[in-house]
Write a structure and sequence with these properties.
The chain is an alpha/beta fold and 286 residues long. It has 14 helices and 8 strands. The longest helix is centred in the middle third of the chain and has 16 residues, at 141-156. It is globular. The protein starts with a helix and ends with a helix.
Length: 286
């Protein structure tokens, strides 16, 4: 399976929007008048993380937007540290740019951190919230260093095998879920001159002091009122199940689903489980 094969059968386009002055790449699909669903990837990721999810959601009538977040993919990379409020500002600007007063947010890893922060700050903008292996609730020095070093090694060295290893870190079964096309897409992104120049801004949340002031603490999660679905892989290499359970306890009325044989990309690794679950949740949230 390739990215284009995954998208076969659904009308879609790659588009660029001006989100508060930042040129933002998006994969857009689904009926124009459908409820907007915005998909947000993880640290050093890109919108291709959701190619196994877009067709099903578009066919169900949702207007899907998978975006490259601030400083990521082919979106603009302003020269300043990308802390969580900056990501939230960019996401809000994107919602404004597409004319969405409210949207369903689906965030994986860093994307979940950002989506949850927006839901706690501006509940009127968030119709529902999906947190897929969401980050931001802990500051684990070993995990932070693993993210930092694996990313820097892949970005600063033109050895595609280092990009492959960075993707392999995410998956329970990388032989099945990391295609050579996905490796090549990420390798090309990692070696854009502006990506290389700004990778230190992208990795600022792996600095302990910076991370601590951006943590998604229980008192902030308690402010989330949107219907919330938490999805977690039992073999998530960047956070164990108790982290997901603590998130579930902090967000009143949330729902927690654990996927077996799954790492850090549940929407991709277990699309067979995730897609029907997401559609059921979105229908209930509506």
């Amino acid at each position: 399976m390739t990215i284009w094969t995954d998208l076969t059968g659904v009308e879609h386009r790659l588009a660029y929007a001006d989100a508060g002055g930042v040129r933002t790449r998006a994969l857009v699909a689904g009926p124009e008048d459908g409820p907007p669903v915005v998909f947000l990837h993880g640290t050093s990721g890109h919108l291709e993380a959701f190619v196994r999810n877009i067709p099903v959601h578009a066919d169900a009538g949702y207007r899907c937007h998978a975006i490259d977040m601030l400083g990521h993919g082919y979106t603009g990379k302003p020269d300043h540290p990308y802390e969580i409020p900056r990501y939230v500002e960019h996401l809000t600007a994107y919602l404004d740019a597409i004319g969405a007063d409210r949207a369903h947010l689906v965030g994986e890893s860093l994307g979940g951190w950002v989506a949850a922060w927006l839901a706690s700050e501006a509940p009127d903008r968030v119709a529902s919230l999906q947190l897929l292996a969401a980050g931001g609730t802990k500051a684990d020095a070993k995990i932070m260093e693993r993210i930092r070093s694996s990313t820097l090694n892949a970005v600063r060295t033109d050895d595609i095998d280092l990009t492959r290893k960075r993707l392999y870190l995410l998956m329970y079964d990388p032989a099945t879920d990391v295609s050579e096309e996905l490796v090549e897409v990420r390798h090309r992104i990692y070696h854009q001159p502006d990506f290389v120049a700004n990778v230190h801004n992208l990795l600022c949340l792996q600095d302990m002091e910076t991370r601590r002031r951006n943590l998604l603490r229980p008192d902030r999660m308690a402010r989330i009122t949107a219907p919330t679905l938490i999805v977690w892989g039992r073999q998530n290499p960047f956070g164990e199940v108790p982290e997901a359970q603590a998130m579930h306890e902090a967000i009143a009325g949330s729902r927690l689903e654990l996927f077996a044989e799954c790492g850090h990309w549940p929407q991709h690794e277990r699309a067979d489980l995730y897609n029907p679950l997401s559609l059921e949740f979105l229908k209930g949230a509506a």
